[in-house]
């Protein structure tokens, strides 16, 4: 009985919070979210310079990072380029490159929902995996519980996005007030797919084009920035000692 009362109270609080309209003021929203945003050194930028969905290929930036573009008619595009360390084996670094686009909604409670149109894809390179380098579909609806845009005294408008669990995305700086995007339509043929299961039980869903290319020669090798990789290896080695 007591648990039921707590659940009802929690639902009531959530409904009350969602009913409160977000206030767009100078502190929260220094400028419009429309345009192109990129983290760090601002080398990872969505658009034709990053991905070629028809060929399921990428042009690898000089540094890792993430980029977002938002148009004023509700379209978004994501570009991500990352490397992650493995604490148990410093040599088993995993690299991912992601491209996706679709529609976004600015919800009244201050959150943002990104809904892909279904043609996104990613390249995964894991040196210690059975299949070390492959292309697969990437289509996930993403929720940012809140966002803020501030004025950075050096770089100008700075966008802060907070993921579904409240954890922050790396600060994003405005590269352009215009959205840098590929055409706002489905750009990959995802109707014909191949689903495979590895001996470890991992499921990989690829398009026929990606599967065919992987059989021929594999995806291109990710170009890992030397400084990034050295740092990840050092971090992984330190983790094993602690």
TrEMBL record:
InterPro entries: Rot1. Keywords: Signal. GO terms for cellular component: endoplasmic reticulum membrane. One of its GO terms (biological process) is 'de novo' protein folding. Coiled coil: none annotated. Residues 1-19 form the signal peptide. It comes from the Eukaryota. GO terms for molecular function: unfolded protein binding. This is Chaperone for protein-folding within the ER, fungal-domain-containing protein. It comes from Roridomyces roridus. The lineage of its organism: Eukaryota, Fungi, Dikarya, Basidiomycota, Agaricomycotina.
């Amino acid at each position: 009985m007591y648990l039921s009362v707590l659940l009802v109270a929690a639902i009531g609080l959530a409904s009350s919070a969602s009913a409160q309209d977000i206030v767009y003021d100078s502190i929260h929203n220094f400028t419009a979210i429309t345009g192109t945003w990129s983290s760090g050194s601002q080398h990872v930028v969505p658009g034709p310079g990053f991905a070629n969905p028809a060929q399921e290929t990428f042009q690898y930036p000089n540094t890792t990072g993430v980029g977002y573009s938002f148009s004023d008619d509700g379209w978004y595009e994501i570009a991500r380029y990352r490397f992650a360390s493995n604490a148990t084996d410093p040599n088993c670094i995993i690299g991912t490159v992601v491209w996706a686009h679709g529609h976004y909604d600015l919800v009244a409670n201050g959150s943002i929902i990104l809904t892909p149109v279904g043609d996104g894809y990613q390249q995964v390179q894991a040196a210690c995996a059975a299949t070390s380098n492959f292309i697969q579909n990437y289509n996930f609806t993403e929720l940012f519980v809140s966002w803020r845009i501030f004025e950075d005294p050096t770089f100008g408008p700075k966008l802060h996005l907070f993921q579904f669990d409240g954890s922050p995305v790396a600060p994003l700086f405005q590269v352009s007030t215009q959205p840098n995007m590929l055409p706002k339509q489905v750009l990959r043929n995802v109707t014909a797919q191949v689903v495979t299961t590895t001996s470890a039980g991992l499921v990989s869903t690829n398009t026929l084009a990606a599967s065919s290319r992987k059989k021929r020669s594999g995806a291109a090798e990710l170009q890992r920035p030397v400084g990034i990789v050295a740092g990840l290896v050092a971090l992984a080695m330190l983790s094993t000692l602690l």
